[in-house]
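Input sequence (101 aa), recorded before submission:
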Amino acid sequence: SFEIVAALLEVWPEAVKEKDYSYFYTPLYWACRMKAQFEVVDALMKVWPEGVKEKSKFGYTPLHCACRYRAPFEVTSLLLNTWLSYKENRTKSAIMSFQWD
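Predicted structure, token format:
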């Protein structure tokens, strides 16, 4: 629940960067996989927004996981907007070019 996650993050904020030994999943990845409520995902991302870029052993991000396991729309939207904020206009082809030739 949100209360448990918030309490843990208060005493051990670096916990958001921990990965399991099997698949290298972060708490954010697990939250997306288990369809955690928005408040849980938001709390994890407020502590470590860069976690949205972390990949699992198989190269999947929390956004991949949220889409695959049908996380709530608000969660998927938060992940996507955060991920895009790291990708915007860094190069002309960071995501894809929207210019027509």
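Checked by second reader. Confidence is low (pLDDT under 50) at residues 96-101.
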